[in-house]
Design a protein that fits this description.
The chain is α/β, with parallel strands linked by helices. It has helices spanning 3-21, 25-43, 48-65, 70-87, 109-117, 161-164, 185-191, 210-217, 220-223, 233-240, 256-266, 273-279, 302-313, 334-345, 358-363, 374-381, 406-411, 429-452, 458-468, 476-492, and strands spanning 93-98, 121-125, 130-134, 137-141, 168-171, 194-197, 227-229, 249-250, 283-289, 317-323, 349-351, 366-369, 386-388, 413-414. It has 3 domains: 3-87, no CATH class; 93-253 and 473-492, Rossmann fold; 269-468, Glycogen Phosphorylase B (Rossmann fold), CATH 3.40.50. The protein is elongated, with a radius of gyration of 29 Å.
Length: 494
Amino acid sequence: MRKQQQQNILEILQTLEEAQAMGLYADCQAGALQVGEFIENIEGEGTETVTLLEEYCEILYRASINASNESSLRQQLIKIRDSIKSELKPNKYKALFLPYYDNTWETMKSVYEAFSRDPLFETQVVIIPIIRNTNKGANFVWEDYLTPIGIPNTHYDAYSFEEDLPDIVFYNQPYDGVNIPKFQSQNIRKYAGQMVYIPYGLHAIASMDEHFEHAQTGLKAMQRCDVFIAQSEVFRNYYMTGKPLYDKTIAVGHPKCDCLYSAKSGGVFTRYPEWEAAIGSRRVILFNTHFSYMVEGTHPHPGVRRLIDAVARNDSLFMIWRPHPQAFLMKMSVQMQVILDFAAAHGRMILDRTPSITPAYMYANAVVSLFPSSIVMDALFLDLPVFLLGRELKDNAPALQPENTVMFYDAVAHEDFDEPLPNKDPHSEQYQGYTERSIIAPLEAFLHEVEQGEDSKCEARAAFRAREFPNADGTIALKILEHMKKLLDRGAGL
């Protein structure tokens, strides 16, 4: 029995006591019978508490005939209350999971599975809706992507924090501004025993601007948590030293790595025979583009067109292109739409819009990304060679400074950071020269390595992975489970 269930029974008992004092014996009898049925549904038959409730109903019947039994009724309620507190002591916790996008479910999937297997916990999943801004205004996003794969979940309209009072809430959507009020962190905080924030992706420790750092640890939804799941001590120390979140953080690794481990070591991922037939024996490039590079008003990175052209002219290469899902909610630039259409129609290119990116990793031999995203970190965990097109060539684009994060940039092949950014006129000789020397030449050298099965970054990746992925054996969720058990045990003495 959960603590909240016990509390609900005690509150009903208080109501029975008040009704009894008013002589509403029929109502008391009906209420006692309902409580007995509720207890038997949870605990099974044969409890002392239900026996006491049945005796209470008999005393109520006699009291309805002879009011002199009032003292016996009061004594029986005391016995029932004592029995509820001793016999029905809470022995279960409620763990609530609040995923949103389908492609972020894997950040908490292994945690959900670990808690669901443990008899100490009752689990529930509620896919929360979010609101996204698009070129057509606010767009309400929600889809039940879990029922088709056999994971039961409750519709968000049917769930009540006030009634459920979960012991633990796991969440991975930190932007309260896109959540409906019901699922904003300040509302969850009112009713949750423990709030556990799981970042929606792994993050590269790269020199970014203050806005990026704020997005990792500075949001209210993160700061309200009781436990922050960090991917490594490096991440914890880089972003959280000297901040209130530091002591709330456990650096056990990111649960997404459990799913990646299961896919790579156990073949646990969705296979697509049509992909396999199209790929054949070719070497596969997984290409990652964020929506911010694709929307109207942006200038396409020069590496995009060159990558598409390189794959198109080389029959030994194949490309799986996975644009950020939000790109399809917004108005794309004309140039990007033309490139997307070309890729979609090409026989050796796939536009991947499936629910999970994991199959694409499993089919890939290497990854090309336009920025150091969570996809780059996933690829490094899986020991896939990565080419990072690190800088946008557009107005106000920050230059990445690798000197502060040498191991990360050593682990990926990328453009030449030693050469300063050119002027921003894409037609100028300086811009064209920079593009050819610092972007295109390194990219083509990387593609040649992939084609030949060579791997010049193998040792650098191994060093980075040893530092950044503390638990790479599929046990991260189990470590989170044990940590939460200790926290709850100290709090409730179960």
